[in-house]
Amino acid sequence: MTKLLREAPPVSASSETLDPKNWDDIRALGHRMLDDMIDYAADIRDRPVWQPIPDQVRARFHAALPRQASDLGEVYREFTDFIVPYATGNVHPGFMGWVHGGGTAVGMLAEMLAAGLNANLGGRDHMPIEVERQIVEWTRQMFGFPDGASGIFVTGTSMANLMAVLVARTMALGRSVRRHGLGDDGALLTAYTSKAAHGCITKAMDISGFGSDALRCIGVDRFHRIDLQALRVQIALDRSAGLKPFLVVGSAGTVDIGAIDDLAALSALCREEGLWFHVDGAFGALGILSPELAPRLAGIENADSIALDFHKWGQVPYDAGFLMVRDGDRHRDAFAAPAAYLRRETRGLAANSPWPCDLGPDLSRGFRALKTWFTLKTYGTEKLGGVITRTCALAGYLEARVLAEPRLELMAPVQLNIVCFRYRAADASKVNGDIVMDIQESGIAAPSTTLLDGELAIRAAIVNHRTDVGDIDALISAVLEFGAQRSCSGDGLMLQVEQSPPLAM
Question: Please, are residues 117 and 267 in contact by the beta-carbon 8 Å criterion?
Fold first, then answer.
């Protein structure tokens, strides 16, 4: 080995490092990038919400693997010319298609700082993990969970829901399930949620080894809340058939219309039946920050676990999903896995366990907590709660506009910040599907569609803190204009819609 080292050619530091040769050059370009992205957010209304990607632009991203270095300025120019104009659009206040937060300049800056630290939050004793622990404590306080509760950042609620199923699985079958698999007892376990729940619950049952057939999707009432009596009946039927109910997933903000299950009644039923009670609160759980909405979440404090996304109503830049578990020991039972390379010490960098890797499947984890910490510290929960309240008030305004317009029809009761409606037409599903695509391609707004009782509806989810009354009016005008064109009931000109009074706050 000594001979090999002696004969090896000298290492050139300048050719091997990835640091810039001139820090002043990259500093100048970095300042320009930062200015450009701040301008992007500040001037977002000057841009279309979304626009289709031209074929020639898409083709640029089918290029061969780059073998040689490129000038950073040229790479950045490609970003500004061919990536920025064709982004999702959820920074724009006219984006209402899906439940996406709008992000903030504060969160963007925090993400840059996190990238500079390049911290791995799987474990070890360093301050970024203390920041995540701080968010866990704040979230525990938000939902009134006891001391000893645990939490962890994940990509999003889909992953958090899967992890909650795994915690409930370990609770039902014991830690041996992690070595031996589900076995005969696991094959008898059944879980319950509503027909209005997010599809990731079904996927979680699939991935966790139960199979989607082990999930009972219970009917809902006219407000899209789980039918509690039907749930009781199904649990009793399954028990009488020799099956073993173990989990109920309640919804705090269903995906289609934003319904909130009766969480207090669900928690009482789960205690009575000895079932794990999990709440999918992807966006609705953060309604706890709004004094107007918090009473509707009564019972969430009794959940065994809660999944939520700070990147939705919390306006943290993507991604910042979160899982909170009432009993931290149960949480660790489901994921902790000792290994020699993860040896824990009483001092040094390997001190201060347990670590986040004991609470989830990831060892390599980014510093998601920093942008959440910056957001909560900078704005405070009162201001964030006010933003949440306002999005619901805007949904109420949109509902009133729909109800006042004979050409439009409300498709579901408005409960939070989601409004489902349609343009009245002979072939309503076809016409409204085309209307949504027309509006998206126009760049005016970006609603989406969903199916309610088999009927296609235009779905407007008002999540972005930048959205205001003018954006709602623009959406209504666009629906009426394109609806008239598609149903051949107008002359294709912009229909004049009476200006509505300002939204009272």
Answer: no
Run of H or E residues at 368: helix 368-404
What span, in angstroms and rounded, lies between the C-alpha atoms of 66 and 411?
51
Q: Which of 490, 431, 485, 480 is nearest to 455 (CA)?
A: 431
The closest alpha carbon to 419, from 437, 440, 401, 441, belongs to 401
C-alpha separations of 114 from 20, 27, 128, 138, 356 in Å: 20, 17, 9, 20, 17
Measured CA to CA, the distance from residue 154 to residue 160 in angstroms comes to 7
The predicted pLDDT at position 122 comes to: 96
As a whole number, mean pLDDT of residues 395-399 equals 98
Q: What angle do CA 34, 126, 337 make, to 5 degrees?
A: 115
Q: pTM (2 decimals)?
A: 0.93
What radius of gyration do the chain's Cα atoms show? 26
C-alpha dihedral sign at 244, 249, 255, 260: positive
* Cβ–Cβ < 8 Å for 384, 312: no
Half-sphere exposure of 458 (CA within 13 A, CB side): 35
Spell out the residues 6+ positions from residue 63 whose beta carbon is closer than 8 angstroms to its own: none
Residue with tokens 């993507």: 318
> Which residues partner with 419 through β-bridges?
460
Query: What per-residue confidence (pLDDT) applies to 494?
Result: 37
Which of 164, 172, 230 has its CA nearest to residue 201?
164
Going through 328-454 in order, the beta strands assigned E by DSSP cover 408-410, 418-423, 448-452
Domain boundaries, given as residue ranges, for the chain: 120-366
pLDDT bin (cut points 50, 70, 90) of residue 488 is: confident
Which has the closest alpha carbon to 489: 430, 423, 434, 442?
Answer: 423
Nearest to 432 by CA among 413, 404, 460: 460
* Domain 120-366, CATH: 3.40.640.10
State how far the Cα of 286 lies from the Cα of 376, in Å rounded to an integer. 12
φ and ψ at residue 245, rounded to 5 degrees: -60, 140
Kindly report whether the peptide bond that precedes residue 48 is cis, defined as omega within 30 degrees of 0: no
Could you give the strand order of the β-sheet that contains 448-452, starting from the edge strand earlier in sequence?
Answer: 408-410, 418-423, 455-461, 448-452
3-class SS letters over 174-216: CCCHHHHCCHHHHCCEEEEEECCCCCHHHHHHHHCCCCHHHEE
Mean pLDDT of 454-479: 98
Give the SS3 label for residue 418. Answer: strand
Which helix (H) or strand (E) segment holds residue 102: the answer is: none
Pairing of strands 244-251, 189-194: parallel
